[in-house]
Amino acid sequence: MGYAIVQVLNALSFSALLLLTGLGLSVVLSLMNFVNLAHGAFYLLGSYVAVLWLASGAPWWLAFPAAFLAAALAGALLERFPFRRFYARPHLMQVLLTYGISVILADLMRWGFGAQILTPELPAALRGVVFLFDMPFPLYRLFLIGVGAVLGLLLWLLLDRTLWGAALRAAVTDRGIVETLGIDTRRLFAAVLVLSAGLGGLSGALGAGMLAAYPGLDEEVLILALITVVVGGLGSFGGTVAGALVVGFALTFSKVWFPEFANVVAFSAMAGFLLLRPHGFVAPPLRQV
Amino acid sequence: MSPLLEIAGIGKSFGAFRALSDISLAVEEGETLGLIGPNGAGKTTLFNVVTGFLRPDSGAVRFAGAPVDRLPPEKRAALGLVRTFQKAMVFPALSLRENLAMAARQRAGHGLRWLGARTCHAEADAKVERLLAESGLPRGGGERMADLSYGEQRIADLLMALALEPRLLLLDEPTAGLSQAEAERLLRIVRRHDSRTALVLIAHDIDIVFGHCDRIAVMHLGRLLRTGTPQAVRADAAVRAAYLGSLAD
Amino acid sequence: MRRALLSRAAPMAAALLALALPAALAGPFHLRFLAEILLLGTAVMSLDLLVGSGGLVSLGHAALFGTAAYAAAVAALHLGGNLLLVLGAGTGAALLLAALMGVAIMRSSHLFLLILTLLLGQIAWEVAFHWRAVTGGADGLRGLPPLSLGPWRLDGPRALFLLAGGLALAAHALARSFVAAPIGRALVGAREQPLRMSALGYSTARIRLRAMLAAGGIAGAAGSLYPFLNLYVGPQSVHWSLSATMIIMLVIGGVGSLWGAFLGSAVYLALQTYVSAYTDRWQLFVGVIFVLIVLLLPHGLAGAAARWRRG
Ligand SMILES: Nc1ncnc2c1ncn2[C@@H]1O[C@H](COP(=O)(O)OP(=O)(O)OP(=O)(O)O)[C@@H](O)[C@H]1O
Ligand SMILES: [Mg+2]
Question: Would the keyword Membrane be found if you checked this record's keyword annotation (chain C) (predicted)?
Fold first, then answer.
């Protein structure tokens, strides 16, 4: 019983991390129809910033906003050039451009932060374990689950329940009309990309306590986030939540049940899911004919 | 003899919206049936169901005496159940000739061949030349589809369907956006092609439908209001109320 | 007629010269290096069939290449390095995997297809990495017997280079005939207007399956020879990062041109080999060049060359 609950919580904490990373990706995808493969780099940048911040002795909780800001700044720069020019281009070109950018960023980070594995010094408040049904469980993972749920909810409120979100969704459907209403869609899109990059950095800061930070992590995280978003059906909020849960649970429980072939089982499950539902969990009802 | 196409009790909903309810209809070999109805009546949806692009919630479709409900669109096309789309759906980046050849090769059963490409291409090209000559398009065939005028694209769109030598041809508003002369020319091409080909023609232009069709079916809000000869339909009170209204007066 | 003949003979002659010159002049290191360019280029060219003609961006192409490499290596270890045997084993294995992938991607497109091929490819990688008894796990397989054909041993760098060159030429001819044949045209049609293709009676699923088989067969043939360059095969040859590298090579060379694939793999491998001798930042170079090409030359080096030739 206790063991099962601990594993479920493990899966949930991983899902929370996937959700936060995936949301950054899916926000630009669903709202701007832009595929940003540099998102993994934003994540890793956030991780590095958090690790350095936590080692510096400054108030620990500021590490998260610092990571958000650092990644958001990188996002803002890249948005001006060259992302902005590619919003209207086909997905393939976006994939190529942003993958190229991510290769550059990855090497720059390897240059700046070194090639070794950096683990953050967690503050006392987040260290240690709690006992659930006599089973030890890392406190930090509970923290992740909580933060994931709260941030996810906030983002949903922002995009779904505010005027800003409404303008955004309208701009996606028909940019021209929204512009005739006097709304600057360029700034709107820039804001979304910066928000998404910041989210990437923030999730990197949060994830560092679980996955540490090292070269190559950007790609690993990117792939998982991409799988999350794709399994979720590209970009609806509910879909991304579902995708994060599917991927988080598949990866966690395949390790529990089939330790030898964990990834084979998990990948097969995800591939099988995509075979049965080629458009993911929540497919938009598009009229084709 | 059973009819060429037999639709029985077709129903289709999109979510809570009933796009088609209980449509039953038959098309005979060689006849021209006009399908009319206001925007959103469900005409295109009916085409989609008949050609296999949408699965109906209920009902059955028989073609040439056999049920086709379980066949995907491409299998239905191979049987001779051929359609065009409401928007001209061509390959804009390919040449006019290549557009038609794409259809001709598939008709000859060579669509997926790798070996013996030369003979396949030669055969298809010969057929394309015939079609182009027949159509009277003042084009050599080498020009990119995207560079053709809209009217020419619609004719090319039709020629692709004709290259398949259909037994039943479903045309979805082939004349929309064309001038009167262009529309007449397009319909002449259809008629000249093969008199045994049955035709279902969706059009909003009443003159065209009443002038060219043997029978007319009227749809409204997903239902089939009336089927009959042009005179009978023109005289029908329900049709006048629902659709023709001011137009007929 | 004579002009047509000439215009077809000229590239052929140029290609043969390009093979003959290094074979006569280059040293062993460069011959091996060129052979690697040719083999990877062949695999990238087969990817171009999918991406360039079909718009099917696969992130699992290395799985086809690498699976063939493993199958060929295992066959060679157990049955000896007979060239035909090795080619047959590798290509056959790749065709099997390609058939599987082809069936899997029948209904997917765009990002879904990208992720699906990635997942399938990574499953192949996991197998290569964890099935120690057969694949040697993380260490891979070493100590392969050299290639042979009847009485001839094909183990010198010159023989390997000529073998790779012959394979590349044959594969290029095959790929060109595929693109020109009805199936190649149908692949383009299914990319441009899948709905219309169905309405014309084409099965897009079968088109994709055939394209995948053609691409898989060619990638597999190249992969079969790959282990014999260094008498070693490791899990990196199956990993998705090699798939991504292939896409980079393809884009640098030029999507849709077929021969650009060789150009792209040459540029990439040259950067990797020569720039890395001077600086650790060679990946930065690759990234910058790649991004510049995406920004400035959307049709890659081959496209730029074609434009330049047309004036
Ligand atoms: N795939 C779909 N998803 C949701 N609704 C659909 C879909 N296809 C059709 N509809 C709806 O079904 C109704 C009938 O559409 P349909 O296109 O068949 O009408 P139509 O008679 O062809 O009209 P028009 O003359 O404008 O072409 C419309 O209200 C349309 O919005
Ligand atoms: Mg319609």
Answer: yes
Residue B247: pLDDT over 60: no
Instruction: Kindly tell me the burial class for residue C155, based on how many C-beta atoms sit within 10 Å of its own C-beta (0-12, 13-18, 19 or more).
Output: middle
Which residue is associated with the tokens 């109906």? B56
Query: Which residues does chain C have within 8 Å of residue A268's beta carbon, measured at their own beta carbons?
Result: 119, 123
Q: Residue B175 is encoded by which pair of tokens?
A: 């004349």
CB pair distance less than 8 Å for B53 and A289? yes
Ligand nearest to the CA of B85: 2
Q: What is the average pLDDT across A177-203?
A: 91
CB atoms within 10 A of CB B40: 14
Identify the domain containing residue B69 by its residue range: 5-248
Which H or E element spans position A143? helix A139-161
Helix axes A262-276, A237-257, angle to 10 degrees: 140
Tokens 């092609």 belong to residue:
B193
Q: Which ligand is nearest to the CA of B35?
A: 1
In this complex, do B53 and A285 lie within 8 Å of one another by their Cβ atoms?
no
pLDDT, tens digit (0-9, with 9 covering 90-100), for A115-140: 999 999 999 888 888 888 888 899 99
Q: Is B180 exposed, middle or buried (0-12, 13-18, 19+ CB in 10 A)?
A: exposed
**CA atoms of A223 and C119, how far apart (whole Å):** 10
- The sign of the dihedral angle between the CA atoms of A119, A125, A127, A130 is negative
- C-alpha distance from C29 to closest chain A C-alpha (Å): 28
C211: DSSP letter: H
pTM of the model: 0.93
Indicate the domain borders of chain A: 2-276
Ligand 1, atom 18, residue with closest C-alpha: B42
The domain A2-276 is classified under which CATH number: 1.20.120, 1.10.3470, 3.50.30, 1.25.40? 1.10.3470
Q: Is C85 exposed, middle or buried (0-12, 13-18, 19+ CB in 10 A)?
A: middle
Please say whether the beta carbons of C233 and C69 come within 8 A: yes
- Alpha-carbon gap, residue A5 to A18, rounded angstroms: 20
Model pLDDT for residues A51-61, shown as the tens digit of each residue = 999 999 889 99
Beta strand B5-14 pairing with B17-27: antiparallel
How many Cβ atoms are within 10 Å of C265's Cβ, its own excluded? 27
Chain B: give the shortest CA distance to residue A62, in Å: 48
> In sequence order, which ranges of chain C are alpha helices (DSSP H)?
2-25, 28-48, 61-79, 83-104, 110-130, 132-135, 157-180, 182-192, 194-199, 204-225, 227-230, 240-253, 260-270, 276-278, 282-296, 300-310
The three-point CA angle C94-C97-C100 to 5° equals: 150
Say yes or no to pLDDT of B37 above 80.
Answer: yes
Tell me which residue of C311, C216, C202, C296 sits closest to C254, measured CA to CA.
Answer: C296
Contact B20, B45 (CB under 8 A): yes
Number of domains into which chain B is organized: 1
Helices in C105-203 by DSSP H: which ranges? 110-130, 132-135, 157-180, 182-192, 194-199
Taking residue C309's Cβ as centre, other Cβ atoms within 10 Å add up to 7
Q: How far is the CA of B38 from the centre of ligand 2 (A)?
A: 9
Q: What is the mean pLDDT of residues B2-30?
A: 95
pLDDT digit string, tens, across residues A139-148: 999 999 999 9
* Residue count (chain C): 311
**CB count, 10 Å around CB of B86?**
15
Which of the four pLDDT bands, split at 50, 70 and 90, describes residue C2? low
Q: Coil, helix or strand for C178?
A: helix
Do the beta carbons of residue B27 and residue B3 sit within 8 Å? yes
- The single-letter code of the amino acid at C185 is R
Cβ C121 vs Cβ C62: under 8 Å: yes
Ligand 1 centroid from CA B44, angstroms: 7
Instruction: Indicate the angle between helix axes C260-270 and C28-48, nearest 10 degrees.
Output: 130
Q: Is the dihedral of CA B156, B157, B159, B163 positive or negative?
A: positive
Q: Which two tokens stand for residue B74?
A: 């491409």
What is the CB neighbour count within 10 angstroms for residue A161? 10
Task: Write down the domain spans for chain C.
Answer: 27-238
